[in-house]
Amino acid sequence: MAARAELELLAPARDADIGIEAVNHGADAVYIGGPGFGARDKAANPVAEIERLCRHARRYHARVFVTLNTILRDDELEPARRLAWQLHEAGADALIVQDMGLLELDLPPLQLHASTQTDIRTPAKARFLQDAGFSQMVLARELDLHQIRAIAAQVDRSVIEFFVHGALCVAYSGQCFISHAHTGRSANRGNCSQECRLPYTVTDAQGRIVAHDKHVLSLKDNDQSANLALLVDAGVRSFKIEGRYKDLGYVKNVTAHYRQLFDALLEQRAAGREGPPLRPAASGRTRHFFTPDPGRNFNRGATDYFVNGRQIDIGAFDTPKHAGLPLGQVLKVGADHFDVQLADAAEALHNGDALTWWDLQGELQGVPVNVAQALGGAGWRVYPNVPGGSTADLKDLKRGTELSRNRDMVWERLLARESAQRRISVRLRWSATADGFTLEVTDDEGHVGRARAAHAHEPARDAARAEQALKAQLSRLGETLFEAVALEVEDAAAGLFVPVSLANTLRREAVAALEAARAAAFAPLQRAQPVEPPAPYPEDTLSYLANVYNSRAAAFYARHGVQVIGAAYESHEELGEASLMITKHCVRWSLSLCPKQAKGVVGVQGTVRAEPLTLVHGNDRLTLRFDRKPCEMHVVGRMRKNVLRDAKAQPLTFYRARPAAGRAPQSTPASSSSTGSP
Predict the structure, then answer these.
(1) What is the third-level CATH fold of 322-416?
(2) Which CATH class, in words, describes the domain spanning 6-168+222-288?
(3) Whose CB has fewer CB within 10 Å in the chain, the N or C terminal residue?
């Protein structure tokens, strides 16, 4: 089956208000966390707030997907099941799921979407998830176009989703356990401590320092702006923006950016200039009252990661912070101020801005602007917001220092106001009936709202002026979802007198009828049924990497033919060295130390070996091992003793009876869990 014709722009929402603005700025769908069991534990929302978001989204036929994508203990399965039904009643369209134990429960008839945490990298894994009942799946961010096409060729009933913007986890999603090992905070449980953003010293097999205090596991941010058409042609239909922790300005700006790119792409396809016609997955056209610029939001630089093959410049090794946009340079530094020459005289500095620069050690420094004074032309005087107002502690700030701005107060105030309107195009038709008048309002999708009223047919004193006034009244749709693109007055109604009150009444009633027709036509997404007999899982043995944390998940995999099922890392059964992170990012490659890079280089080939490297941060030592065949890196380490000591129970036993080696576990009720875990 060919990929569907709709393109879905999928935006994040930390809360309902941000989700509403995401829809207003052009999102076709929004994903948001409920009150629990979401992979961003600080972005939880009451069910009532999700219901409010759903009501707004449905007016545009946009969708709301709710994250239920942590791994669950046995004692959490029933609360998660109850929550799923509450979300269904609130109007959610789909659940985003990681834990396969949920598929063994009595869930509501909501679509299931496979979370990024399910680690979909192969056609076989994608096909299995489709056959297990998933209607949409987000592929691993590390895939290239060839791999995406190969998966799309095997997935004929599910929608392919792909991240196009935002922060990048360095590990394959669902394959990172370093946070739990070092802090007891599990990324699979929604509480990542972001150990990957820390500075590390890298040493080689002889103990020599290769890199000192560099953020070698920190990546730039994902930006697929230039690859959208290629991704569409590869089979992607849902384009996901990362950022359920991000603020309102970020979501407005990035959603608007991609909405404009997709609108241009859709227009090209509609004109038949490139590929088959496509259409947006929701209704309406968005007008933005600003020019989107993703560079103005928090970012670590941009990369398209592996979409076009392995790139060497994907790391944000110098800092995981936002350096901002280039601004100008320092002219001189006084005791309580410094003068700046802006690169663009049309720019301006504002009170409350924040400026950054790099010190002599390559560390990012920054300071807020307390007062900015114009000196004429491109010159500005900055009084920094520092204790005592002195510039003495502004490290390495001197004449000639290049400055950037990572907070622009004018930009932030712009996005704090109404910054977009989304309207659905309609055509209005005014006609005369035997005893009065009728107004018919039709949207682009063919939904119709009608209103009629009895009124005497009386000739207008000035027919042309009367018709002009009538059209003006009927076109006043500013407070509704709609905008008139055409208005027809039938010949039989032309020249007749129509009171303003009657025109207004019929307009309101017809618009209300159209909204009701659109609401009645809104079809819930259909839950896909798993194939029978159950499709075999691509492997017959699962290690801790499969994140099996409850008896129902174990039963799911056993039902699909898996013979040996290991417990999740969070169960504290992998107490020795283990791969705490598996990643396509290669520190050796990024530091130009990969043997593949030395091929053909005279005098170097054969002298560079893929030996392990060591990462050191404080008392933590991690080993980097390189698997050359799949070209992957494993970050290997142990669980800290304090994590084990602080655990409520170790190891957590989630089976009623532990399976013998080489045998799958027996299914047990959700209520059979043992003691809790951290």
Answers:
(1) Thrombin, subunit H (2.40.10)
(2) alpha beta
(3) N
